[in-house]
Design goal:
The chain is an alpha/beta fold. It has 2 domains: about 270 residues, 3-Layer(aba) Sandwich (Aldehyde Dehydrogenase, Chain A, domain 1); about 190 residues, Aldehyde Dehydrogenase, Chain A, domain 2, CATH 3.40.309. It is built from 16 helices and 20 strands. Strand 17, helix 15 and strand 18 form a beta-alpha-beta unit. Helix 2 packs antiparallel against helix 5. The N and C termini lie far apart (about 75 Å).
């Protein structure tokens, strides 16, 4: 395969943890291996942090926050570090575009395109050093005093927990605003996709971030829970499944720790009766195969007028069956593998359960016959689905979609909202006013028009069990700040 490679020569120090500005061996001596999902060959081996390593990383971050220079700098003094990180990320896009497909199966072309945007996230937050009002002044406050201030100050030590599907992107929207705010960070990488986080640690060392400001390590569940429970961690920023998010929220609630949670979804595409179903099918097929469906905001429930259901399914089937599945480094391929064996097994099991439940499998639903290794799965369609069926209720996190008929706009909106999730939706219509009216009724953090859309540069997050808080944009900075009121005499 074109993509059969390893990480040798890409990363300098994957066998160590980055703590307190130093590359150190894990106290347990443990390591974790990552297998390329297209070849099943070992791509990368990294140091595994244990509970004791979490403790020393948190201690370093605590010292750096309580006694170090970073929180006492002005935002304008911190901004050049973010700009330097951006420049070095730009210089390493080729390495990012090699690591990412070898960890979770994203197409190399998409990884390269996304990788080229990551530096822009750090530049955006560096720009907020000048444009964001870190302090506001009020004259003659009604409660007494001559004048008052609201000062927006760093929340403290942040535990940032990163998933395996889009680590380099998700890291940026946690690390960049937290750094600008003056926080110190323990960045916990996923065991399945640690490579770009190690790369970021190398960059942090290169740009001279003060010791303890950014600590980077890879850990599994026990050590990760220690990070969430640690009394010296002021805030958790987590992206991942709703099940894990509920666990984190309960732990943070026990000690009133702050948390931002970006969780799962079961998002709907609401196709109104004035929209061309062939055009909708073409758009949705492309987005369904992006990152092999391993995107929390993917549109996976397609709600269509009953009179157009069969036409839409036929068009979607034709689009899906034209997708070439294979090596993510092959430019002719339209969809790569799932990230790991357990993810493929989960998707396969959910599809089999849906068939046993009586759902109509129209296309896909199995491993491609021509690929005898790698964690591949065909893009899959279920038709005439009832929204109460398991396959329409639970997040699959793979290239599996359901088509659900509706008899009116009102019923379509009700079906779209009938879910525990509320991350993303889209409405397809040629009438912008009608589309806007439907969008206002859809209960989700983002609503797109005539395509799958989300934009973390503006702001991203969910309603209901899809999360708490927002990432990206100005709200993404506010998530790492506390508001302090100061009332002064003349």
């Amino acid at each position: 395969m074109v993509g059969s490679t390893n990480a040798q020569g890409i990363l300098r120090t994957p066998e160590k943890l980055f703590i307190d500005g130093q590359w150190v061996a894990p106290l347990s001596g443990g390591s974790l291996t990552v297998r390329s999902p297209a070849t099943e060959e070992i791509f990368l081996t990294v140091a595994e942090a244990g509970v004791a390593d979490i403790d020393r990383a948190v201690d370093a971050a605590r010292r750096a926050f309580d006694a170090g220079p970073w929180p006492r700098m002005t935002p304008a003094e911190r901004a050049p570090y973010l700009l330097a990180i951006a420049d070095r990320l730009d210089a390493r896009v080729a390495e990012i575009a090699t690591i990412w497909p070898n960890e979770m199966g994203i197409l190399h072309s998409i990884a390269a395109a996304f990788g080229g945007t990551i530096g822009g996230v750090y530049r955006y937050y560096a720009g907020l050093a000048e444009s964001f009002a870190f302090e506001e002044r009020f004259e003659a406050p009604p409660g007494g005093g001559d004048h008052a201030f609201i000062s927006y100050e760093a929340v403290g030590v942040v535990g940032a927990i990163i998933p395996w599907n889009a680590p380099v992107n998700i890291m940026a929207y946690k690390v960049a605003p937290a750094l600008l705010a003056g926080c110190t960070i323990v960045l916990k990488l996923s065991p399945e996709a640690p490579g770009t986080g190690v790369l970021l640690a190398e960059i942090a060392e290169e740009v001279g971030l003060p010791a303890g400001v950014l600590n980077v390590l890879t850990a599994d569940r026990e050590a990760s829970e220690r990070l969430v429970r640690h009394p010296d961690v002021d805030k958790i920023g987590f992206t991942g499944s709703s099940a894990v998010g509920r666990r984190i929220a309960s732990i943070c609630g026990e000690r009133i720790a702050r948390c931002t949670l970006e969780l799962g979804g079961k998002s709907a595409a609401v196709i109104l009766d004035d929209y061309d179903v062939e055009l909708a099918a073409r758009s949705l097929a492309g987005s369904a195969c992006a990152m092999t469906g391993q995107i929390c905001s993917s549109l996976t429930r397609y709600i269509v007028p009953r009179t157009k259901h069969d036409r839409f399914v036929d068009a979607l089937k034709a689009e899906f069956e034209a997708v070439r599945v294979g090596d993510p480094f092959d430019p002719a391929v339209g969809m790569g593998p799932l990230a790991m064996a357990r993810q493929r097994d989960k998707v396969e099991e959910m599809v089999q359960d849906a068939v046993r439940d009586g759902n109509i499998l129209v296309s896909g639903g199995r491993r491609p016959a021509h690929l005898n290794r790698g964690y591949f799965f065909e893009p899959t369609i279920f038709a005439h689905v009832d929204n109460n069926d398991m396959i329409a209720r639970e997040e699959v996190f793979g290239p599996v979609v359901t088509v659900i008929p509706a008899d009116s706009d009102e019923q379509a909106v009700a079906i779209a909202n009938d879910t525990i999730f509320g991350l993303n939706n889209s409405v397809f219509t040629d009438d912008p006013a009608r589309g806007y009216a439907v969008a206002r009724r859809l209960r989700s953090g983002t609503v797109g028009h005539n395509a799958w859309r989300s934009d973390m540069a503006i702001g991203f997050g969910g309603f209901k069990q899809s999360g708490i808080g927002r990432e990206g944009g100005v709200d993404g900075l506010r998530a790492y700040l506390e508001a302090k009121t100061i009332i002064m005499d003349a």
